[in-house]
């Protein structure tokens, strides 16, 4: 089996900010905060978190703070959004500088921003423009968990909405009645886990969910061993996280062939320049690089730092977060 090219992946992540001459760099502003989180988390799991200058990271995050609405945007002068707000908080938490970086007013306004986005049915909008998705429930709940600002009203509404998103096949969709998708299963299980509400799922439905998740592994063909997000789809390295984290939360990791999955992830590396792609021989990116490494961490690969399947941060970081109910 090919080994994980750690040094090349570290070099690849460090060089990601060196491409300002390319149009792709400027066209991806809307993902910049998320990209920073993906790269930094991968470095933490590889035990190389000091590769970026902490002061530079703080400066960038502060430059993305939305003075008008609270929370953080993906890039300076972008409006705040739950996705970029969570990434900013995760980065600050991993570096253990959350309380030192946020002023009391920034903290309060960020909490207000997040809570203001919950709708009467318990769901969350991603921002003030109104898109609703179980991703945003998860990002809101994890953000408030990191800030230790969850309360019963927020939790009860979120849990109720998540439970209504579970389908007849055991999976979860982005809203009630939407198609089951592995990434939505992660956001829904992650929300329930943070809220201490995994036991709210019906036992029969939980068993169906485990079966549905385990069936995501492709067992034959060119990409055997990989996991997909929905039936009849090609496997993708990112589902090494979205599916595997769910099985880990449910304590069912042994329901897939871990050795075959390791092989699929490792074959998706760029052995020359570093980085991991969605499947072998495709273009690498930092998103798949993180989730490939995180999947290997869940599988206990070599000496990677253990990753928390609920928060997608190192366990030594999440162990410092006070668990709800407080």
Automatic annotation (TrEMBL):
E.C. number: 2.5.1.60
Name the cofactor(s) required for activity, per the record.
Answer: Zn(2+)
Concerning Pfam families, the annotation shows:
Prenyltrans
* GO CC annotation terms, alphabetical: Rab-protein geranylgeranyltransferase complex
GO molecular-function terms, A-Z: metal ion binding; Rab geranylgeranyltransferase activity
* Keyword Chaperone set for record: no
* Highest taxon listed in the record's lineage: Eukaryota
Q: Which UniProt keywords apply?
A: Metal-binding, Prenyltransferase, Repeat, Transferase, Zinc
Write down how the cofactor binds this protein: Binds 1 zinc ion per subunit.
Similarity comment? Belongs to the protein prenyltransferase subunit beta family.
Function per UniProt: Catalyzes the transfer of a geranylgeranyl moiety from geranylgeranyl diphosphate to both cysteines of proteins with the C-terminal sequence -XXCC, -XCXC and -CCXX.
Q: Which PANTHER family match?
A: GERANYLGERANYL TRANSFERASE TYPE BETA SUBUNIT (PTHR11774), GERANYLGERANYL TRANSFERASE TYPE-2 SUBUNIT BETA (PTHR11774:SF11)
Q: How does it assemble?
A: Heterodimer of an alpha and a beta subunit.
Q: What is this protein called?
A: Geranylgeranyl transferase type-2 subunit beta
Q: Which organism is it from?
A: Ambrosiozyma monospora (Yeast)
């Amino acid at each position: 089996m090919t080994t994980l090219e750690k040094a090349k992946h570290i070099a690849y992540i460090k060089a990601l900010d060196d491409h300002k001459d390319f149009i792709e760099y400027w066209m991806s502003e809307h993902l910049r905060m998320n990209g920073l989180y993906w790269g930094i988390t991968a470095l933490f799991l590889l035990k190389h978190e000091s590769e970026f200058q902490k002061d530079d990271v703080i400066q960038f995050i502060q430059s993305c703070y939305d003075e008008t609405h609270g929370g953080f945007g993906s890039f300076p002068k972008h409006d705040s959004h739950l996705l970029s707000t969570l990434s900013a908080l995760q980065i600050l938490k991993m570096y253990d500088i959350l309380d030192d970086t946020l002023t009391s007013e920034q903290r309060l306004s960020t909490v207000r921003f997040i809570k203001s986005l919950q709708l009467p049915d318990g769901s969350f909008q991603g921002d003030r423009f109104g898109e609703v998705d179980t991703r945003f429930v998860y990002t809101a709940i994890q953000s408030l968990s990191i800030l230790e600002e969850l309360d019963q009203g927020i939790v009860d509404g979120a849990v109720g909405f998540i439970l209504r998103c579970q389908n007849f096949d055991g999976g979860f969709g982005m809203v009630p009645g939407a198609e089951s998708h592995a990434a939505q299963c992660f956001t829904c299980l992650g929300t329930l886990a943070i809220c201490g509400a995994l036991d709210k799922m019906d036992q029969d439905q939980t068993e169906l969910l485990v079966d549905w998740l385990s069936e995501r592994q492709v067992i034959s063909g060119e990409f055997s061993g990989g996991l997909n997000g929905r039936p009849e789809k090609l496997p993708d390295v990112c589902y090494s996280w979205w599916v595997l984290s769910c099985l880990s939360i449910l304590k069912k990791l042994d329901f897939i062939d871990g050795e075959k999955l390791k092989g699929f992830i490792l074959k998706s590396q760029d052995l020359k320049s570093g980085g991991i792609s969605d499947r072998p021989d495709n273009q690498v990116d930092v998103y798949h690089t993180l989730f490939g490494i995180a999947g290997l961490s869940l599988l206990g690969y070599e000496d990677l730092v253990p990753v928390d399947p609920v928060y997608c941060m190192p366990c030594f970081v999440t162990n410092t977060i006070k668990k709800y109910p407080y």
